[in-house]
Amino acid sequence: MPRRLIPFAMVAYCIGIVLACDLVYSHFVHQTERNLRVPDPRFDHGLAANFDGYDFMRRFYKVYTNSLGFKDAAVRDIPATTDRRRVLLIGDSFIEGVGLRFEETVAGLLYRMGNERSEKIEFLNASAATYSPVIYYQKIKYLLETGFRFDEVVVFVDISDVPDEATSYFCIDDDPQYREYCRVPLPRYAGPRRTVLQRNFVVIDATIRTIRQKIQSLRPMDSGEVLKRLTTSPLARWTVTNDLGTRLDPLGVEGGIKRALQNMQKLADLLASQNIKLSVAVYPWMYQLAVDDQNSRQVAIWQDFCATHCSAFIDLFPAFFAEKESDKDWQDRLFIPGDFHFSTRGHQIIFREIVRRLL
Questions:
Q1: What is the pTM of this model?
Q2: In 51, 308, 347, 350, which residue has its Cα 20 to 30 A from 321's Cα atom?
Q3: 10 Å Cβ neighbour count for 5?
Q4: Which of the four CATH numbers 3.30.70.260, 3.40.1190.20, 3.40.50.1110, 3.40.228.10 does domain 37-192+221-358 have?
């Protein structure tokens, strides 16, 4: 072999050894990490039960779930009944608390406070990303059918719920008129697919992901870029404009509102039949704060609904708008850097208002 090719041959040899070792390790030694997010035929998707691992949203963060598949302070068994007052929280990714450790979220703050009271209260978080009213209803119905008992439900209705009801989750809806739109077999959410690299070279894949995360952390998307993206999203804009084209087909905004109210009505009737209190809370997205959508249609819809169906209606818009008015850097304080989900400060505001209204 010509001497000038020896360095290249050595590099190729070393790369081959690394790839071979990684391949053997990946197939015969490494245990595949469980997916946190799993499908469910009854309520489309949720979180894996008794999970002890990490999730990724701008960064890796520690996640535990309990025996019910709810995010929690630790892996633990939750009995079907308890002598404590038990409050079930349910919402989408904002209330799940993506990107944050459990103790930093509204559910974690309530959990700690409930344990510290003389008359203890058990707060449990049934939330998961992309939930909407049809899932709130189906998941709570399933919990009750399995014998799980609680005294109160707080539904955190998200602005994305109307678009979700307009476009998604038709396969799990009890109403035949919506079942007609079901075009995919259950379950819809099957979790992330593993790439060839993830299946065969887990060490190299983990190294690449770590490097990408470090690079991303050096220059996260600023709040202005996040807000710019939201201005093109029908999830955020339906409360302030009718110019959405066909992006919320097949039901559109009005159809999404109608279906959302129908499923929340089913939930209210179900809870009333079990003598379980229902409270509804609404909160703004970054976009609503930026465009001063303080008298939002989101608030009006659920305030009207709660006039006859809720034990409490909790409007979180004033608290967030007050925070905005008091701090010119409100975007960076209330939201995770590079994202539109609430930061620890945002969760603290929700916690304060929930405690003030419910306890």
A1: 0.88
A2: 308
A3: 10
A4: 3.40.50.1110
